[in-house]
């Protein structure tokens, strides 16, 4: 398909046909009720060419979508965990079979490099695989002893919440939308997904594959629109909200969830530090830092924006890091092939925001060691890998999330100062510590205020370990994903207590003084024997 627009012709891969785009956009719940909205023009980031029109949901459409998901959820919740999980076993295989199409659709909306799109496409398969393996154990009722052995029993049950709203950002649109919906569905819920307009196509394809895998019709709905337009209605109508996005929006989502008295999980922004200790092996650190800073063109919540390097290795680090960033930048390109190692930013607007942070730093006295320029020759939203030094607190980039291929390098000579600097942020999402001495690096890691700390890695080692919960602390989030808690958060814990013999009734006739003596004696005995 070739579409000519004012901005230029698209360069879509042959797999991405108009028929596919029309089929996917028809899945959005829109135009069923309420005032009809103007569709959103979807753009191929590499060219600025128009790819198609995305229907926009009205608040009434959102209510209808939640109602449909709720109707389908009742039966889904009655299925055994094994039967639900079987859908995800089939989906896992479909994801791997369709990986190239998924990557195409991710790249169209994000403009990221092919390898990154493929890595992103693998994430939901990894999450599904983890919960396929663990869901039955985690969701099964747990028999607890009652308050009094023998005569009472107590069971902990995990019931699906009902309908979960999943609100996803544009930076890993497929991974986040699908990987967060997966445990919500496996736990027995319906899902109403709100992707970002710019990157909705890949998520719609993921949902189509779920239906192909046998998900009951209607259980997963997709609504599209501006966040403030559809978000409040979605949250008011749902039973839980899983949000990933900026800290500013997260605050609004938390307020809406609080007003509605529903639970929420908020995965938010970061200003993530890396510490390079004096004994770090620079042969590992340099490629590690290049990926941690510039991977996904710097648009990863866990990516590194501040690097603290020990005096002893600072000069060599800076020389080699600058050379590596320039080498990476030389591969940049707009391509659905694997040659470019770095792609575009998501939009011209975002590129201008990134450029403004660099400009602000430059004007206030920072040094741009490399980069610092847009690359309109490659595409409308390309920006060079950029390394700064001399960044001081009054510069925007010092404390605010830039969310682009921009990093500042700082020198330190005292590790305690470096830890203090690393923690001097309102955020607490991710951090990275490099040293040949693992025990020492782990001791430093223990002192870093972040929800994820990676030793001798930027962020992949913690994000890819699906068995351990991962989330932000401080202003980087509330709750976490992955691990047992990443499934249980989508359930209500219900306590079923059973009184096998009514002892209270039997004691009603007993004089109060005797009742009290018996109660105190029982409490002492149970403590002594360690029964309760
Ligand atoms: P954003 O907060 O602008 O938008 C995220 C989503 O929320 C979008 O779908 C948007 O349409 C929607 N939204 C906006 N206002 C809303 C409202 N009032 N009600 C309901 N929905 C609303 O974030 P973004 O710019 O799309 O994403 C980048 C941010 O996300 C960065 O700060 C990044 O660090 C963060 N992020 C965090 C994680 C994590 O796991 N911690 C992962 C990826 C991205």
TrEMBL record:
Pfam families assigned: Aldedh
Active site (record annotation): 267
Keyword line: Oxidoreductase
All residue ranges annotated as the Aldehyde dehydrogenase domain in the record: 35-495
Alphabetical list of NCBIfam families matching this protein: PRK09407.1
UniProt-listed PANTHER family: SUCCINATE-SEMIALDEHYDE DEHYDROGENASE, MITOCHONDRIAL
Sequence similarity: Belongs to the aldehyde dehydrogenase family.
Listed name of the protein: Succinate-semialdehyde dehydrogenase (NADP(+))
Species whose genome carries this gene: Nocardia albiluteola
């Amino acid at each position: 398909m070739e579409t000519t627009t004012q901005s230029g012709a698209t360069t879509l891969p042959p797999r991405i046909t108009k028929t596919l785009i029309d089929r996917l956009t028809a899945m959005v719940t829109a135009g069923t009720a309420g005032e009809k909205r103007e569709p959103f023009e979807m753009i191929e980031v590499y060219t600025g060419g128009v790819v198609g029109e995305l229907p926009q949901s009205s608040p009434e459409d959102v209510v209808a979508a939640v109602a449909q998901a709720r109707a389908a959820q009742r039966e889904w919740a009655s299925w055994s965990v094994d039967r639900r999980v079987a859908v995800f076993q089939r989906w896992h295989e479909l994801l791997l079979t369709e990986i190239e199409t998924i990557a195409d659709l991710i790249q169209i909306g994000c403009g990221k490099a092919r390898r990154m799109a493929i890595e992103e496409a693998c994430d939901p398969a990894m999450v599904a695989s983890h919960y396929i393996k663990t869901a039955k154990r985690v969701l099964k009722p747990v028999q607890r002893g009652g308050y009094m052995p023998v005569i009472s029993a107590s069971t902990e049950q995990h019931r699906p919440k009902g309908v979960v709203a999943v609100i996803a950002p544009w930076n890993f649109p497929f991974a986040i939308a699908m990987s967060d919906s997966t445990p919500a569905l496996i736990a027995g819920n319906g899902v109403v997904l709100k992707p970002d307009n710019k990157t909705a196509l890949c998520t719609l394809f993921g949902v189509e594959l779920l239906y192909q895998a046998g998900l009951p019709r209607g259980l997963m709905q997709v609504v599209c629109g501006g966040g403030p337009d559809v978000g409040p209605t979605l949250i008011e109508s749902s039973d839980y909200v899983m949000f990933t996005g900026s800290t500013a929006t997260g605050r609004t989502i938390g307020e809406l969830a609080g007003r509605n008295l529903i639970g929420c999980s908020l995965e938010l922004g970061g200003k993530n530090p890396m510490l390079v200790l004096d004994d770090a092996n620079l042969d590992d650190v340099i490629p590690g830092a290049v990926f941690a800073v510039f991977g996904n063109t710097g648009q990863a919540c866990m990516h590194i924006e501040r690097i603290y390097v020990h005096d002893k290795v600072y000069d060599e680090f800076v020389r080699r890091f600058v050379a590596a960033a320039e080498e990476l930048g030389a591969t940049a390109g707009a391509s659905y092939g694997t040659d470019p190692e770095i792609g575009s930013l998501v939009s011209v607007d975002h590129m201008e925001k990134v450029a403004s942070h660099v400009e602000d730093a430059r004007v206030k006295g920072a040094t741009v060691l490399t980069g610092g320029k847009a690359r309109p020759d490659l595409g409308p939203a390309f920006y060079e890998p950029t390394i700064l030094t001399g960044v001081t607190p009054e510069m925007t980039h010092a404390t605010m999330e830039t969310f682009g291929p921009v990093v500042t390098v700082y020198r330190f000579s005292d590790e305690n100062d470096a830890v203090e600097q690393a923690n001097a942020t309102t955020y607490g999402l991710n951090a990275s510590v490099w040293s040949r001495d693992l025990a020492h690096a782990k001791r430093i890691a223990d002192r870093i205020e972040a929800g994820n700390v990676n030793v001798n890695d930027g962020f992949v080692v913690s994000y890819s370990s699906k068995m351990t919960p991962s989330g932000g602390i401080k202003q980087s989030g509330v709750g976490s994903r992955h691990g047992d808690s990443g499934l249980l958060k989508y359930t209500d814990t219900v306590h079923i207590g059973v009184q096998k013999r009514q002892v209270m009734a039997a004691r009603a006739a007993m004089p109060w003084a005797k009742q009290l003596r018996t109660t105190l004696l029982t409490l002492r005995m149970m403590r002594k024997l360690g029964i309760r």
